[in-house]
Design goal:
Number of helices: 12
Distance between the termini: 42 Å
Bound molecules: zinc ion
Helix content: 10-25%
Strand content: 25-35%
Largest sheet: 12 strands, mixed
Length: about 550
């Protein structure tokens, strides 16, 4: 079946297997199935829509609406929402059902859901079991972490996103089990590596990519089990160490030149079409130990899924993003939803089942149109019903939503509490303020924050050896955005230990640089540069890289 996209108007396919999925995942209420129609938006527009709800790293100082205490939150103080700090949210000092209301069949679901959202309290941040890690969000089990967004079970890590089971690691993006690493992207089990991407089990490497099980390598691409290599050539220990000594101390300029040389090397070498390991019948990138997952990214231990992103343990689910650590089963259109079975259109619903069109609900089952509920059952628009009443009323609301065209569609981005520019959607599908507003989506302008820093210029020392402790007292200016930033003492100690020059860019800019370096979360069809077989890859057809299918890559490189 061919459908037309509503936002971008190019055709996309809905296959027989997709129709079967939508039938399987349709809610069964009171023994009757309420069929979900196939989506009206293409997968890319659906991805953008889900992302438009998640503000990960824009934090603001404000007051708690329960106690007046100063708190840190993803909601700026001029937003029209009630915001409670974590411990207040989880206390019994308020009752979410006191905001309950009858469904009004004279209005759309969306307008009533937006009104409920303005009345019900929301959590200031999404953190669980964090110690001395207040300036983090979407984090779990963290100690002494700072400006880290997404991730868990890490300590002494700063500046990054998705840093998991790691220690003493700075400026990372999607790192698992790394220690003493800096500027790492999409890598696992690396130790003391600097400026690296798509690497596994490497140690003491500098400016390397797509390397596995390598030690003491610099400027290498696509190596496996090598030592003392530079520009993919084995040099022997002595020569390698001599050349590395010449490189030290590192300066920002040397790092820039190293990156250029690595790009020069990469241009001549074949790239693997996608990073899919120990998996069967999968398409996408960064897939581990999975089976039959299509168009999926950063997926581990998943089966029979489509359009996943940052999902471990996903089963029979479509259109799910940010579902770590517990995954989803029989779920569709879920953003930041974790440990969920049977759900459609949820945002930030954790550990529950049969959650429909709800957000920020925890350990709930059989809820419809609910917000900020804790351990509740049989609720509609935060109002408590008996099971029989619930099973009678929900089908009527579904019928109403069919008429208004809302049934089967995820929340529209206009229902997001965040400006589009505050959300992760802006990283993947950047829009201008004018473009976002033309679609009826919000845009946030922070009236209090001055973007450009107008104070005196501080010269950032060239090498770490000549950097004094007093640099931590000064305000530095980002060389790209002009925004002010500071170096904190723990950060300076880290740079000193690893011999890294101070950054010349602020945290936000460094994050954006890493996102830009990483491959896109999109798939294109092109042909293997060697055997011409059709492949699906994150390298767009017009990109200059030499891209091989997995078989040709393994036969050539290893
Ligand atoms: Zn091939």
């Amino acid at each position: 079946m061919q459908k037309t996209r509503r936002q971008c108007s190019a055709p996309f396919e809905i296959l027989e297997e997709d129709l079967k999925f939508y039938d399987d995942v349709s809610p069964v209420i009171g023994g009757k199935k309420h069929a979900l129609p196939p989506p009206r938006l293409c997968p890319d527009c659906r991805f953008q829509r889900r992302l438009s709800f998640r503000n990960e790293r824009f934090l603001y100082h404000r007051k708690s609406d329960l106690t007046g205490k100063q708190i840190v939150s993803i909601y700026a103080s001029d937003k029209p929402y009630k915001v409670y700090d974590q411990d207040e949210f989880w206390s019994d000092r308020w009752d979410e059902c006191s905001y309950g209301r009858d469904f009004d069949f004279g209005k759309t679901f969306s307008e009533q859901f937006a009104a409920l959202g303005c009345d019900v309290p929301h959590q200031a941040l999404f953190t669980t079991n964090v110690e001395n890690s207040y300036y983090t969000n979407h984090t779990l089990n963290m100690r002494n972490c700072y400006l880290l967004f997404g991730g868990g079970d890490s300590q002494d890590c700063m500046f990054g996103r998705f840093v998991i089971f790691s220690k003493d690691t700075l400026d990372g993006l999607s790192l698992y089990s790394c220690q003493w690493c800096y500027e790492g992207i999409a890598s696992q089990e690396c130790y003391q590596c600097l400026y690296f991407m798509n690497c596994r089990q490497c140690s003491d490497c500098l400016m390397v990519e797509d390397c596995q099980n390598c030690k003491n390598c610099c400027l290498c691409f696509g190596l496996k089990g090598k030592e003392y290599c530079m520009l993919n050539e084995p040099l022997g220990k002595e020569e390698y160490e001599r050349r590395m000594a010449d490189l030290r101390p590192l300066t920002t300029e040397k790092v820039r030149l190293l990156r250029e040389r690595l790009h020069g090397l990469k241009a001549r070498l074949p790239h693997r079409a996608s990073h899919i390991f120990a998996s069967e019948d999968c398409t996408g990138d960064m897939i581990f130990n999975s089976k039959n997952c299509q168009h999926s990214f950063d997926a581990t231990d998943c089966e029979d899924c489509k359009y996943l992103c940052y999902t471990p343990k996903g089963l029979h689910s479509y259109d799910c993003t940010y579902n770590a650590p517990a995954g989803v089963q029989w779920v569709s259109e879920a953003g930041s939803t974790v440990g969920m079975t049977n759900a459609f259109s949820t945002f930030l619903c954790w550990y529950g089942d049969n959650n429909w069109y709800s957000r920020e609900c925890h350990s709930c089952s059989n809820i419809f149109g609910c917000i900020s509920m804790r351990r509740k059952k049989w609720c509609i628009f935060n109002k408590q019903y008996t099971q029989e009443e619930y099973e009678r009323l929900v089908p009527k609301i579904i019928e109403h939503m069919r008429k208004t065209g809302e049934w089967g569609e995820h929340f529209d981005p206009s229902l997001s509490y965040m400006g589009y520019n505050e959300t992760v959607a802006q990283e993947q599908v950047p829009l201008s303020q004018k473009e976002a507003c033309a679609k009826g989506w919000q845009w946030y302008v922070d009236q209090e924050k001055k973007d450009a820093y107008l104070g005196p210029d501080v010269t950032i020392p060239t090498t770490i050896t000549e950097t004094p402790d007093s640099i931590c007292d000064q305000i530095l200016r980002c060389e790209v955005s002009g925004k002010p930033f500071k170096i904190i003492p723990q950060e300076l100690a880290f740079y000193r230990k690893l011999g890294i020059p101070l950054p010349h860019r602020c945290f936000d800019q460094r994050h954006e640089d890493r996102v830009a370096l990483r491959s896109s979360r999109k798939l294109w069809k092109r042909n293997c540069a060697k055997c011409q077989k059709e492949i699906q890859t994150t390298y767009a057809p017009e990109r200059p890289e030499i891209v091989y299918c997995e078989e040709c890559y393994l036969a050539t490189v290893y």
